[in-house]
Structure formats: structure tokens, C-alpha cells
Description:
Order of helices and strands: EHEEEEHEEHH
Helix content: 25-40%
Strand content: 25-35%
CATH architecture: 2-Layer Sandwich
Structural class: alpha+beta
Strand order of the largest sheet: 2-3-4-5-1-6-7
Number of domains: 1
Number of helices: 4
Number of strands: 7
CATH class: Alpha Beta
Radius of gyration: 15 Å
Shape: globular
Amino acid sequence: MANHCFVTSKKWFARPEMIDSLLIRLNEKHFEGKLDIQRVNKAEWYISAGMPNNGLSVWITSARKLEIRHALGTWMGWICTSVQEFIASELDCICSDEGIVERWKGRAFMSYEDYVNNLVDCVENEADKALLKSYYLQEKVW
């Protein structure tokens, strides 16, 4: 079963052209144009980032909700989080995730290294933390 995250707006935002524009801006501003963003149909996108057969599906679920299917691995988890947080912060929306009880406002963009540091922050043993961090950093594609 795939895990899904969401961006929910207080207002109607589900115009496909708006999402197109935000994805293009995110790609140019934070990823130097390296994301491959494909429009699948009127209200769905597929985003990959240098990993064959591993990408995000993003689609408009309703007039107030955007849904994102997580891809595999830490690298693509960071891409997914970046897409979700960027859209939410730009449109003053709320983020949520099937695997997390809390809801939150979109936050500022973070580098992959900062994302990894946040992931391993809860590990108390320093040797384990360093090993896990090293493992996650090896997933970095570019």
C-alpha cells in the first residue's frame, strides 16, 4: 500500500494551471530544473528526480485538496516533502499525511542534508546516527 500526503486549502485552489506554475517555480528555484515534471492528464502530474521508475504522482483530489503518492527511498521522500511543503507555503495551506496524526502549515524549503539530519535526529546513539546518516546521504542523486 502506498502512503499518501495531502495539501488542503481553505479556499478553492484546484486550477491545474496554478499547480503547473508552482511546480515549475519549485523546480527552477530549488532544484536547478533537474526535476522531470510530466503532466499526465488535466489534473495529474508525475515527478521524477534522476531515479528510473521511481517518482511521485500528484493529483487534484477535489477543489480544496491536492494528493501526493510517496515514492520510494529517502531521496524521493525529500522530493515529496519539498513539493508538499512548497505548495502549502505558497498557497497558505495545511499539510497532512496518512502516516502522521498532526497537521501543519507549509514550511521553508530545506536541503537534502538538512532533511537527513531531521530524520536521524531522534537516534540517541551517535555511532548509529552517523551510520544512518551516511546511508541516507548515499541515496543522493545530484
